[in-house]
Amino acid sequence: MRMNGMVLRDVRKACSKRGSVVGYSEEYQRRIRNGVEQLTGLSVIRIYVKAKTKFHWYSRNRREKVPSTIAGFLTDVVEIGDVGMLTGPSPSPTQGRLSSLLVGCSIGHKDVTAGTYARMVELGGEFFALSNNHVLANVNRGVQGDKVYQPGPFDVGQRGGELSLVYECGELAAFVRINPTGNLVDAALARLTKRSWFSRSPVTGGTLPGLTKIREAGAGDVCEKVGRTTGRTRLTVFDESFTGQVNMGDLGAVEFEDQILFTGTDGGSGIAGGDSGSLVYIQDGDEAYNVGLIFAGSTTVALANKMRHVVGAFSSPLGLDVPFFGEATEDDGGEGVLYEGCEIRQVILVDPKSPGRRKCLLRFTTLWDRATEGDGIEVAGELTDLETGVPLDARQIVIDGVGAVTDGQGAFSVTLVVPIFALTPEWTVVARFAGD
What we know:
Layout: H1 5-16, E1 21-25, E2 32-33, E3 36-37, E4 45-49, E5 69-70, E6 73-79, E7 84-85, E8 101-103, E9 106-109, E10 115-116, E11 119-123, E12 126-131, H2 133-136, E13 147-149, H3 153-158, E14 168-175, E15 188-192, E16 197-202, E17 210-214, E18 222-227, E19 231-247, E20 253-264, E21 279-284, E22 287-297, E23 302-306, H4 307-311, E24 325-327, E25 346-350, E26 359-364, E27 376-385, E28 396-399, E29 402-405, E30 411-417, E31 431-433
Parallel strand pairs: 4-6, 8-16, 17-22
Antiparallel strand pairs: 1-4, 1-19, 2-3, 5-6, 7-22, 9-10, 9-13, 11-12, 12-15, 13-14, 14-15, 16-24, 18-19, 18-21, 19-20, 20-23, 21-22, 22-23, 25-26, 26-27, 27-30, 28-29, 28-31
């Protein structure tokens, strides 16, 4: 049950006087004993501190002690460490350059290290990559048009590369400013400009069906996230109404309200530096639901913005009903989407071997309406320069994992095997250049 305004006022006042306090829950909670929530007993006011300390009447810092009652309610003090935005990423297996943006891959503004790409969203008829302000906008320092890289700059350097056109994937489009108080989200959007393909598949493999709806997670719910550093981990909701101070680097400690506090289901926090921007979702049967956006944490907890706050934080509500696999630019004259069964239209590829990495149009010339699981289907198409229309011959391409070489007219054909839809509810046919 949520506290009323008078009680919240007293809680805020008590917390603001004590430097050891990190935050508090805006809802009445059950007491924690040995890390376990007690299912019986009186509701208490939960106060979060960096570290628990024993106080005596003669202690010089005894004024730091959290009072045993606030507004007539018992308090329960929980230690969670020093909460801050996730920085200092370590090398990770998900740090490589990808032809398509996959959920959980490395991404970052030109002046940051590396964070995590959450998912694609729709705004004003365009598709944008979603992550944190501190990942895509360098904690309010970014300006529209700043370059965004995949993988993030730290990971480019780890692979012996230099920031260049090869690693560009987009540019900063919008961000929600982080203020000293009253923050609900740490969020930003990037417009894809170089590698415009995106997928709802996680970088760790598998698929995430659904992701078009939001679910409000409650205490005890087990969720998942896919992050740049720790990959796919399970997170358990500890508090769905956390308000407190978060260290945001040069901005210092700023207040975030109404956040989700998680603990790692399998121990620890379930996150690490570089996981900022990770999408948190909950799986329910054949559907995955959006829950939140990871942005901060400590060694014991993870902190996420609620997805409903993220969706409502920009100039108009973000759309979550985006294709399973698609192309985010609008200059191809078509939808460019390969998803749901056997519909194939056309694909925009960037030729890594051409001067300036020119865009190429890969058009499928044979289509089919229905197919039976396990069938081998002959697919034909042609590859041309997007601007000139000139056929591209002797180019090695890969269609759904099957290699082909274009002939003198830019034509190709491959045999694709229809997957078992019980295992793969949506068939994503991925086209790319070999080696890209």
